[in-house]
Amino acid sequence: MSEFPAVESLAVDTTTCFHHRDRPTGRSCTRCGRPACPDCLREAAVGSHCFECVRVAQPPISQRMRQRAAGAGAVVTKTLVALNVAVFLLTSLSPGGSLTGDGASRLTARLALFGPFVHNGELYRLLTSGFIHYGAVHILFNMVILYRFGEMLEPALGTVRMACLYVAALLCGSFGALLLTPHALTGGASGAVFGLLGATAVGLHQRGVNVWQSGVGGLIVVNLVLTVVIPGISIGGHLGGLIGGAMVGWFMLRVPTTQRSVVDGAAVAAAVSALAVAGSLWAAGR
User: Fold this and answer.
1) How many CB atoms sit inside 10 A of residue 270's CB?
2) Exposed e or buried b for every residue in 97-115, given b needs 16+ CB within 10 A?
3) Each residue of 44-99: pLDDT tens digit?
4) How open is the CA angle 87-139-272, to the nearest 5 degrees?
5) Terminal-residue alpha carbon distance, the chain
6) Contact by Cβ (8 Å): 33, 17
7) φ and ψ at 256, to 5 degrees?
8) Residue 4: pLDDT above 70?
């Protein structure tokens, strides 16, 4: 007669999941070794890791945000282009507006830069004026340069600093326009766009690149000549944006040589923006 093993010897030792105590499991995390059920495990390059080990291994939130932004491309640049186009269509299709720039709608007048209104407290015009345009040619020219140089700068700056640079250049352009022509109805992204050109130029110079051979220097000169030659263009707006963008870009794009030489570019942009707003209030009230 053959003998059968006792029932007790046929029993298999089981353990329970470290997280779900009521779930028996025969699997475990290959990182920490704790038993875990399938719901608590995540597939890894080697074996499976529990959700706590996956969370601990993740990089900091700030680093993950930068990685996501880098993968999404020039988010700020594309958003700015979309906003400019949307505002242009809205103002052009409003009563009194025109796609060709032959007329200005009441909405355009409400958003444009005008010294007396800024002096009376309508500070929003310092920003909104940078998103209105007088005709399709006007916005097309600005958006081409914005997109080209925005895609060049944003990967180096990141989304936050790119937005700060653009706003600072826009506000400096508004200050320049109010300084020279406070009683003109001014609008356009040109000041901010010139700021991107200025930042690109100083960034290339800091890296030992000849701005004239790169073509950026020549583009700035050509646009400055057109600014002076063509009537109706805000000289102050273009110069103000160029100078403001170059100033902020100098701090944002320079390569620090020591830890002490690191300067927060966003803080510099905020300081320049504040000075531009203060200068605009003074210029508008003259």
Assistant:
1) 15
2) bbeeeeebbebbebbbbbb
3) 888 889 988 888 887 776 555 555 555 557 899 999 999 999 999 999 988 877 77
4) 80
5) 116
6) no
7) -70, 140
8) no
Chain position carrying tokens 């909405």:
107
- Could you tell me the pTM of the whole model? 0.76
DSSP the chain: ---PPPHHHHPPP-EE-SS-TT-EES-B-TTT--B--GGGEEE-SSSEEEHHHHHHHSPPHHHHHHHHHHHH-SHHHHHHHHHHHHHHHHHHSSTT--TTSSS--HHHHHHSB-HHHHHTT-TTHHHHGGG--SSHHHHHHHHHHHHHHHHHHHHHH-HHHHHHHHHHHHHHHHHHHHHH-TTS-B--SHHHHHHHHHHHHHHHHHTT--HHHHSHHHHHHHHHHHHHHSTT--HHHHHHHHHHHHHHHHHHH---SSGGG---HHHHHHHHHHHHHHHHHHHHT-
Cα 163 to Cα 244: distance, rounded to the nearest angstrom: 14
Q: Locate tokens 């939130």: which residue? A: 61
Closest by CA to 129, choosing from 230, 286, 276, is: 276
Q: What is the Cα–Cα distance from 251 to 228, expressed in whole angstroms?
A: 29
| Lowest-confidence segment of 66-75, 192-201, 268-277 by average pLDDT | 66-75
Tokens for 212, please give them: 């004239």
Identify the residue whose tokens are 């200068």: 279
For residues 238 and 185, what is the distance between their CA atoms, to the nearest angstrom? 15
C-beta separation of 176 from 236 below 8 A? yes
